[in-house]
Design brief:
Elements lengths: L7 H28 L5 H21 L10 H27 L2 H7 L2 H13 L6 H19 L6 H27 L5 H21 L2 H8 L7 H27 L2 H22 L7 H40 L17 H10 L22
């Protein structure tokens, strides 16, 4: 739900910024690693971690963000997240370097299946039949496309599936971390992931003399276009995180999900048309589009789920309002409401949400933008 007073420009602009940033980071990483053949995705990852660390540190110094102070407790909580994040970033960049954008986008949808399975195991969540069918359609299409991929690369596929696994692990472990240790906020997670990522990557690269020599002797360092692309690749991660925050703030988490889905479709076609490492075949083309249809169905199912939960929350609020009652939000979602519905009920409740604000029942008619 958008905050009170959010304008159409803020809503539409934040969604456009997120879509543009999310699309740009994939394309720019591909340009740097594949078009220019930059020799070290690990060095690029280190630069991305460094840029994010510096940005958050500067914002922290001027008082724009709050980061939980370092302690042994924070270090203990953050250790698994740092490793998971590091492997996720490295495997994602390695896969980007070796796999065409259309296949990269399709194979990344396996992370949805892995997240669904992990959350079912860890949290006991049970997705609806419609969600299961849409995920099956995405995965089936990706498999059809993979079996007819004329640019198949074993190492690249391994890295993509490793990235999918650690993306799922990152979501589940972060959820448990933020629940078990409320003092560690999301900004602290991002900051310490980046800070320790820089430290680990510097140590790792210091042992890879041949790779660093290839970076130093890279022939395109004196080309302005490459330097611009490399700087954008290093800094776009921070812009993407900020755009996700704005998009979710001014619209809803669902808007972020749907914009991301549409971005993936556009990325697929950009990779097909403009990138030289994609080789067309009808089987691959059909498989990719089956996966795309699955992602659209998945987004539609999520939309319907949120709108139904919102409608129930509004009806519950209306039924209690005349009696002066308050809406009860069951801890953990309760047996009769999902976690998403519980959050919607909280947002529709008459009390301000934690952290202030004026969210109240007068906002119940705000539309979910897609």
């Amino acid at each position: 739900m958008a905050p009170v007073g959010a304008t159409a420009w803020q809503k539409g602009g934040s969604a456009l910024l997120y879509g543009s940033a999310s699309l740009s980071i994939m394309v720019i990483n591909k340009v740097v690693l594949t078009i220019y053949h930059f020799p070290s995705f690990a060095f690029l990852a280190a630069c991305q971690f460094l840029f994010t660390t510096l940005v958050i540190f500067c914002l922290k110094v001027v008082g724009r963000v709050q980061v939980t102070a370092m302690s042994w407790e924070v270090l203990r909580v953050m250790a698994p997240l740092v490793i998971i994040s590091l492997v996720n970033v490295l495997s994602g960049l390695g896969g980007t370097q070796k796999i065409s954008l259309p296949m990269f986008t399709a194979l990344r949808r396996f992370s949805i299946l892995m997240t669904m399975l992990l959350e079912a195991y860890v949290f006991g969540t049970r997705p609806s039949v419609a969600v299961k069918l849409s995920v099956f359609l995405m995965i089936f299409g990706a498999l059809v496309a993979a079996l007819s991929d004329l640019t198949f690369d074993t190492v690249g596929y391994f890295m993509i599936f490793l990235s999918d696994l650690f993306t799922a692990l990152n979501g589940v472990v972060m959820k448990r971390t933020l629940t078990a240790c409320p003092s560690v906020n999301k900004m602290a997670v991002l900051y310490y992931n980046s800070l320790f990522g820089v430290i680990i990557m510097v140590g790792l690269l210091s042992t890879r003399e041949e790779e660093m020599e290839a970076v130093r002797s890279f022939t395109h360092w004196n080309e302005p276009r490459f330097l611009l692309s490399f700087c954008l690749a290093a800094g776009m991660g921070s812009i993407l995180n900020y755009s996700i925050f704005l998009c979710t703030l001014y619209n809803s988490a669902l808007t972020t999900t749907v914009v991301g889905c549409l971005k993936n479709i556009l990325t697929t076609y950009i990779g097909m048309i403009f990138m030289s490492d994609y080789i067309f075949s009808w089987e691959n083309f059909v498989g990719l589009h089956i996966s795309i249809v699955g992602s659209l169905v998945y987004s539609f199912v999520e939309l319907q789920s949120i709108l139904k939960g919102r409608e129930r929350a509004v009806m519950d609020m209306k039924s209690r309002k005349h009696a002066g009652g308050r809406i009860h939000v069951p801890v953990g979602g309760g047996k009769g409401a999902s976690k998403r519905e519980a959050e919607l009920v909280r947002l529709l409740d008459q009390r301000p949400p934690s952290g202030g604000g004026n969210t109240g029942p007068e906002e119940k008619e705000d539309a979910v933008l897609v």
